[in-house]
Amino acid sequence: MIKGMFTSSSMAYPCQISKELEQYVVTNAPPTVYYIPDFITEVEEQYLLQEVYKAPKPKWTQLSGRRLQNWGGLPRPKGMLAEKLPDWLLKYTNRISDLGAFNGKAANHVLVNEYKPGEGIMPHEDGPLYHPTVTTISLGSHALLDFYRPIGQCGTEGPRDEESRCLLSLLLRPRSLLILREEMYERLLHGIRNDWEDTLTERVANLSSASAQPGGVLTRGTRVSLTIRHVPKVICANLLLGRKKC
Ligand SMILES: O=C(O)CCC(=O)C(=O)O
Ligand SMILES: [Fe+2]
Q: Which residues form the Fe2OG dioxygenase domain (predicted)?
């Protein structure tokens, strides 16, 4: 962990990503991936898991292959009716905003995903509703996040199956923070296979910073991820209610 890096919670956030993060750039991936192992401690991990599981049942949305909680409001093309993030999340979202991850803005949205072994998420783009940065804290178990070329860019010849479009993978250990920007966010799709274990290959771009070896096999447990983002288009609830202040 970087000394002093994660302590301030000032209201104004740095406009540029912190220089201290440069050591965490994954150099053999397209621009730009930051992978920070042990961003949080084991005690913080347990605390966050406890808070996630404290949420009432209706807070969960069951999808095929995972369930999720949405915090901060529902992002929509016309704007998100923003709700204040709970303090237990704000403490961590502010730490990330303090790193300049959102170009001077504060994270205002968190998606909690829970994956049981065998579950995953289909390859997708996060799309234009968010500022082009996505950050993820992993809790409880690892994930192998796969990145794919969009179909349109594969050329007309050649196979187009998922396997051949897969460019690289990132191993996300519990307690790590992942920051994706630029090409990694804007051009590539990402997904997690529905599997019970993950075999590590040379295609995993952050093997060394995730303390892993090619050939290793990791058995999946239940993983909870916090996907932390900035939604730029926000509708102020107070204005809708006729109040002057936002
Ligand atoms: O669980 C993860 O790390 C990925 C989640 C994700 O891609 C998303 O919420 O859009
Ligand atoms: Fe995503």
A: 106-232
Instruction: Give the Cα separation of 67 and 222 in Å (integer).
Output: 12
For residue 145, give the ligand 1 atom closest to its CA: 3
Looking at residue 127, its pLDDT comes to 85
The pLDDT assigned to 152 comes to: 52
The reply to whether ligand 1 has any atom less than 6 angstroms from the CB of 69 is: no
* pTM score: 0.90
Nearest CA to 239 among 113, 111, 81?
81
CB 81 within 8 A of CB 109: no
Residue 124, number of CB atoms within 10 A of its CB:
10
DSSP state of 88: H
Q: Which domains does the chain have, with CATH numbers?
A: 21-151+163-231 (2.60.120.590)
pLDDT at 165: 76
In sign, the C-alpha dihedral spanning 80, 86, 92, 98 is: positive
Instruction: Locate the ligand 1 atom nearest the alpha carbon of residue 113 and give its number.
Output: 1
pLDDT at 130: 84
Tell me which H or E stretch contains 87: helix 87-97
Closest listed residue to residue 106, CA positions, set 232, 245, 239: 232
Contact between 69 and 49 (Cβ < 8 Å): no
Around ion ligand 2, which residues have CB less than 5 A away? Answer: 126
Which ipTM was obtained for this model?
A: 0.99
Strand positions, DSSP E, the chain:
33-36, 61-63, 66-71, 80-81, 109-115, 121-124, 133-139, 143-148, 166-172, 177-181, 189-192, 197-199, 217-219, 223-229, 234-235
Protein residue closest via CA to atom 2 of ligand 1: 225
